[in-house]
Amino acid sequence: MAAPDTIVLVHGFWMTPRSWENWVKHYEERGFRVLAPGYPGFEVEVESLNADPTPILKLTVPMIIEHLESVIRELPSPPVIIGHSAGGAFTQILLDHGFGAAGVAMNSAPTEGVRVVPLSQVKSTLPVLKSPANRHKAIPLSLEEFKYAFTNTFTDEESKALYERYAIPANGGILWGSVLANFQPGHQDTWVDYHNDHRAPLLFVSGSEDHIMPPEVQRSNAKHYKSDTVTEVKLYEGYAHLLPAQAGWESIADEVLDWALSHAAADKP
């Protein structure tokens, strides 16, 4: 079997595929086919979603997963899947469902069963979780809230530019659902089988300064996996949540892809 020649980049909440724009170009220059699918209804640009968040309100996790699977299913061979934030949780779900040759979960949101909740995560998500009424709203972050949660290691000028280019509201219902998942019976939307021996290799990438999905969350999520498949964690010192846009991202992009390619090759029969 040939090595993966396609990379699928999965964005997180408060973001769109535009947040991967530099990574798409970088990987294409290395000769890969690169796809950065948006969630259903995210075919429009950031500015449109800020003006009319209706597509955001319509989202559910099953809708997102079904859409991502439909994109990957059309590919001639399994891709490398790299997800950021909520996209990291979706990457875990996709791998658990049998998609992908290898996966990278970058500053990942946790899947069901991960109960570690650091104080910085509470503060980062408070704009949504402070009121149950937000379950029925699309909740934006202010520039100050965005800087704390996403770009706390960036300059004010860098944060403002990234906020204006990338930030959109997030679906409050999905975020509330992820919190309640650990307190409701049965499998919820972000459940994965931690004992799945057929899952592709998975790397958790963690920024040491990440406020919204801190290293404790990544370590706990990784420790939940009890399967015989490869599950590793790599920490990058000095990086915030919006690691894909922080200075030095090119080296990280190359390192995680090289990890994925090498483990995908080793995982082949």
Give an overview in words.
With 269 residues, the chain is of the alpha/beta class. Helix content is 41%, strand content 13%. The chain is built from 11 helices and 8 strands. The protein has helices spanning 21-29, 46-51, 54-57, 61-73, 86-96, 119-129, 143-149, 156-166, 172-180, 215-224, 249-267; strands at residues 6-10, 33-35, 80-84, 102-106, 138-139, 170-171, 202-207, 231-236. The strands form 2 sheets. Strands 2-1-3-4-7-8 form a 6-stranded parallel beta sheet, sandwiched between helices. It has a two-stranded antiparallel sheet with strand order 5-6. Strand 3, helix 5 and strand 4 form a beta-alpha-beta unit. 46% of the residues are buried.
What order do the helices and strands come in, and which of them pair?
Elements: E1 6-10, H1 21-29, E2 33-35, H2 46-51, H3 54-57, H4 61-73, E3 80-84, H5 86-96, E4 102-106, H6 119-129, E5 138-139, H7 143-149, H8 156-166, E6 170-171, H9 172-180, E7 202-207, H10 215-224, E8 231-236, H11 249-267
Parallel strand pairs: 1-2, 1-3, 3-4, 4-7, 7-8
Antiparallel strand pairs: 5-6
Helix pairs in contact: 6-7
Strand content: 5-15%
In whole angstroms, the N-to-C terminal distance is 9 Å
Low-confidence segments, given as residue ranges, are none
**What structural class do the secondary elements suggest?**
alpha/beta
Read across the widest sheet, the strand sequence of neighbours is 2-1-3-4-7-8
Work out the helicity level. 40-55%
- List the total number of helices: 11
Largest sheet: 6 strands, parallel
Average of pLDDT = 95
Q: Helix-strand pattern, N to C? A: EHEHHHEHEHEHHEHEHEH
Cα radius of gyration in angstroms: 17 Å
Strand tally: 8
Shape: globular
GO molecular function, one term: hydrolase activity
Protein name: Alpha-beta hydrolase superfamily lysophospholipase
Keywords: Hydrolase
Pfam families: Abhydrolase_6
